[in-house]
Design brief:
304 residues, alpha/beta, inorganic pyrophosphatase (n-terminal core), Diaminopimelate Epimerase, Chain A, domain 1, five-stranded parallel beta sheet, five-stranded mixed beta sheet, 42% helix, globular
């Protein structure tokens, strides 16, 4: 039996990272051979959970091109593959509206609109009564909370809440773990700011849109102190990827607001129109929480 390579996208967030690890575990436990492949650098919240629980990172895959079958989790985008052949993708597990199935002609798809892809993977263990390791359980639990902004995002569903409760009870997870995780990802001192923006930057090649996203406790303070650094990071990414539209959404988890930073006239006009916001000195504020995966379909529709 040939091994299946389970991956997500380059520089994954906690949702993609946890899904790649846990789904490989699931496949192995139902009789397949699978290995996790992580591309790029882990985010601050991944580093926090892995260090806090003394978990081991997946063993490095020496040559990913040797694998003939790929399972893609928390993504349905060609950029996620990092050069791997999309024809090798045999399965896609994702939770986004924006999904182009034609990109992966040999894949079966599970695309369901829940708040976190981690919910879909955790449900496989729960529904099939398959034991879940402590590492995968903790990572999936953190991912559900991270990707739903502490179960407050518009994308949160009852399925996310149910699976989060199931994981919490199963692994007796401490009450303040999520707050500790969010505090860890809010530490963007020094060069961590640029790394954080780059690590959580998504480039949508088909529409030539680039969107960075940060989810922290101190957004207003960060922008007040370091707005020019943030703009500089966006300009570097614009030039590097030759992007038409680029902006950053900084989500303040403490006051439930989005702060948008953009410098181009076109992206400002489109964001003002679709989100009913107003830019001043390249910054706009929106009350309530909205995530990148909600904004992208609105942008694509507006650009059609």
């Amino acid at each position: 039996m040939k091994e299946i390579l389970v991956t997500c996208y380059q520089n994954p967030d906690l949702d993609g990272f946890s899904c790649a690890i846990a789904y490989a575990e699931f496949l192995n436990k139902i009789g397949n051979k699978a290995k996790t492949f992580i591309q790029g650098n882990p985010t601050l919240e991944i580093k926090f959970l892995m260090s806090y629980f003394n978990f081991n990172f997946p063993v490095e895959v020496k040559n990913s091109n040797d694998y003939e079958s790929i399972a893609l989790t928390d993504s349905s985008d060609l950029n996620a593959l990092g050069g791997l052949d999309p024809k090798k993708v045999v399965e896609v597990i994702d939770h986004r509206k924006y999904c182009v199935k034609e990109l992966f002609p040999n894949a079966k798809f599970q695309v369901e609109l829940v708040g976190a892809a981690a919910t879909l993977v955790a449900e496989k263990f729960k529904e099939n009564n398959i034991e879940l390791s402590h590492q995968s359980g903790i990572l999936l639990y953190g991912a559900v909370y991270s990707n739903t902004l502490n179960l407050k995002s518009n994308t949160t569903t009852d399925r996310d809440r149910i699976i989060a409760k199931w994981l919490k009870n199963k692994f007796n997870i401490e009450k303040d773990l999520i707050q500790k995780m969010f505090l860890a990802k809010s530490n963007l001192k020094g060069e961590l700011l640029g790394k954080g923006i780059r690590n959580d930057f998504a480039y949508f090649k088909e529409t030539n849109i680039g969107v960075a996203q940060l989810e922290i406790f101190n957004a207003q303070e960060l922008i007040g102190d370091r707005k020019e650094e943030i703009i500089s990071c966006l300009n570097i990414l614009r030039k590097e990827f030759k992007i038409d539209l680029i902006f950053i959404s900084i989500i303040d988890l403490k006051i439930d607001q989005n702060f948008f930073i953009a410098t181009g006239k076109k992206e400002k006009e489109i964001l003002e129109k679709i989100l009913k916001i107003k830019f001043k000195n390249n910054v706009a504020i929106r009350k309530g929480l909205i995530m990148r995966k909600e904004i992208i379909p609105l942008l694509v529709k507006e650009l059609e």
